[in-house]
Amino acid sequence: MPYIEPKDRSRFDPHIDELVNELEITNPISPGDVNYIVSRLIWKLWMNNRSYTLANNLIGALECIKAEFLRRFLAPYEDVKIQENGDVKL
User: Fold this and answer.
1) CA 45 distance to own-chain centroid
2) Which of 13, 23, 43, 62 suits 32 as a labelling partner, its CA being 20 to 30 A distant?
3) C-alpha distances in angstroms, 13 versus 17, 44, 70?
């Protein structure tokens, strides 16, 4: 769940904004760069405190991030493209 309290967000947002600015230097944004950043974050957390519980929590967070991105951003985008280009014929 990405909806943490605003006071908690303020710890992370400047660092995230800096990373995004760095990523946007490359246009188009490299999927490899994004993969590296997310992988490094997850792997570093894992290496600092290995346990099944942590692994389960990290995998769960990644799955939820994917699902929330699909729900909030990709599905509405695809709906617009269906309206613009027509749906697949059944």
Assistant:
1) 16
2) 13
3) 6, 19, 22
